[in-house]
TrEMBL record:
<keyword id="KW-0645">Protease</keyword>
<dbReference type="Pfam" id="PF02517">
    <property type="entry name" value="Rce1-like"/>
</dbReference>
<feature type="compositionally biased region" description="Low complexity">
    <location>
        <begin position="18"/>
        <end position="34"/>
    </location>
</feature>
<dbReference type="InterPro" id="IPR052710">
    <property type="entry name" value="CAAX_protease"/>
</dbReference>
<feature type="transmembrane region" description="Helical">
    <location>
        <begin position="99"/>
        <end position="126"/>
    </location>
</feature>
<feature type="transmembrane region" description="Helical">
    <location>
        <begin position="338"/>
        <end position="361"/>
    </location>
</feature>
<keyword id="KW-0378">Hydrolase</keyword>
<keyword id="KW-1133">Transmembrane helix</keyword>
<keyword id="KW-0812">Transmembrane</keyword>
<feature type="transmembrane region" description="Helical">
    <location>
        <begin position="251"/>
        <end position="274"/>
    </location>
</feature>
<feature type="domain" description="CAAX prenyl protease 2/Lysostaphin resistance protein A-like">
    <location>
        <begin position="229"/>
        <end position="318"/>
    </location>
</feature>
<dbReference type="GO" id="GO:0004175">
    <property type="term" value="F:endopeptidase activity"/>
</dbReference>
<dbReference type="GO" id="GO:0006508">
    <property type="term" value="P:proteolysis"/>
</dbReference>
<dbReference type="GO" id="GO:0080120">
    <property type="term" value="P:CAAX-box protein maturation"/>
</dbReference>
<protein>
    <submittedName>
        <fullName>CAAX amino protease</fullName>
    </submittedName>
</protein>
<feature type="transmembrane region" description="Helical">
    <location>
        <begin position="280"/>
        <end position="300"/>
    </location>
</feature>
<feature type="transmembrane region" description="Helical">
    <location>
        <begin position="146"/>
        <end position="167"/>
    </location>
</feature>
Length: 371
């Protein structure tokens, strides 16, 4: 029987089939195929392990080529394009987080207030500083009492920021603005507008009260009365005002914004809570509520708390400064009836500040959503 002969490009071998498709390889050129059945792969223990040892890592052997997967971050930033009132609705949001955070802030604030009051009482006993046991005042010295009360209110600031980080797992800076921080240049511009608006509103209010036969309360008691009081005011009022804005405009508005798409219910609730926390009556309630509504709207409209903090701090510094100049610091924290004529100056203040802030925000193209 005639066997086919290999061609010129083929090498003959005992286990080689003739044909035109023979390619060179380990079994070409007469090399025999391994005898016996195919061998199984080596056991898993014998397989090589990945190692990250070298110039870019330490010794690591395991199933991951580049080491174990990274741990998930605790804080979760808001999605891109999120409005200020919706910044709390991150990927880590759950329906119970804003409720738990609100309860925790209130409870811890009450405990801290009582604790600080007890500490002040002990210090009074040790140092002999007289205290007042009746009314809303704690210390007989009105300047010391004002500083104590402003400091207690300022405790809200770290509590609100801490609740956002610990309980809502979002950046604390998301309470400040859509840029996840306090925009200092924008805050400075708002302070200048606030100063013009507050001074103009005070002048209009004084003229209106004088025309109605009401004493506006402008007096000068001397530098000895004025300096200690104004130093306390300048040091603590910015923190007190910022704390209230972070609580009533930041936390409440964003807390409701985690559930609702429309910001106005949150603005309304924040303004109502702000008015309820003050002791004003009659037209004074109207003033505080309108102030809260304007601040809430500006926070959403400008994407942050810079404008509300600027007007709140400037208004309080000027108001306390007028009282300090008169030497009547005992009435600095008293809140009650407000004559309706005062609302005319407040309306001018609100209009000048709101319009001025919106004009500058549009000219500067202030960021109003997260990026």
């Amino acid at each position: 029987m005639n066997e086919p002969q290999p061609g010129p490009d083929q090498a003959a071998g005992p286990n080689q089939l003739p044909g035109p498709y023979l390619a060179p390889g380990p079994y070409a050129g007469g090399t025999a195929w391994p005898a016996g059945p195919p061998q199984p792969p080596p056991p898993a223990a014998a397989q090589p392990q990945w190692s990250s040892s070298g110039p870019y890592g330490g010794p690591y052997a395991g199933p991951y080529p580049w080491g174990p997967p990274p741990r998930a971050r605790w804080v979760v930033p808001p999605p891109t394009g999120t409005r200020y009132d919706r910044l709390a609705r991150t990927a880590s949001h759950r329906w119970w987080r804003p409720i738990l955070g609100t309860a925790a802030i209130i409870a811890v604030f009450l405990v801290l207030s009582i604790f600080v009051g007890l500490v002040a009482f002990v210090i009074s006993l040790v140092t002999g500083v007289p205290m007042v046991r009746t009314g809303t005042r704690l210390f007989a010295d009105p300047v010391l009492d004002l500083g104590f009360q402003l400091g207690v209110i300022a405790l809200l600031l770290p509590l609100v920021l801490g609740a956002a980080w610990l309980l809502q797992r979002r950046p604390p800076g998301s309470l400040s603005s859509v840029a996840l921080r306090l925009r200092w240049r924008w805050l400075g511009a708002c302070l200048l507008v606030a100063l013009v608006a507050v001074v103009l509103g005070q002048v209009i209010e004084a003229m209106t009260l004088l025309s109605a036969g009401v004493d506006p309360g402008f007096r000068w008691a001397g530098w000895g009365e004025f300096l200690p009081a104004i130093i306390v005011v300048l040091l603590l009022v910015p923190f007190q005002s910022a704390a209230e804005e972070y609580a009533y405009r930041g936390w409440i508005i964003q807390g409701f914004g985690a559930y609702l798409r429309n910001p106005w219910p949150a603005i309304l609730v924040g303004a109502a809570a702000f008015a309820a926390s003050h002791g004003y009556t009659g037209w004074g309630i109207v003033y505080v509520f309108a102030f809260g509504m304007l601040m809430g709207w500006l926070a959403v409209r400008t994407g942050g708390l810079e404008a509300p903090i600027a007007l709140h701090a400037t208004n309080n510094i000027v108001a306390f400064g007028v009282v300090a100049a008169s030497g009547d610091m005992g009435s600095a924290m008293e809140q009650g009836e407000v004559p309706w004529e005062s609302l005319i100056g407040s309306a001018v203040q609100f209009a000048v500040f709101g319009i001025g802030v919106l004009i500058i925000a549009r000219k500067w193209a202030i960021q109003t959503v997260s990026r």
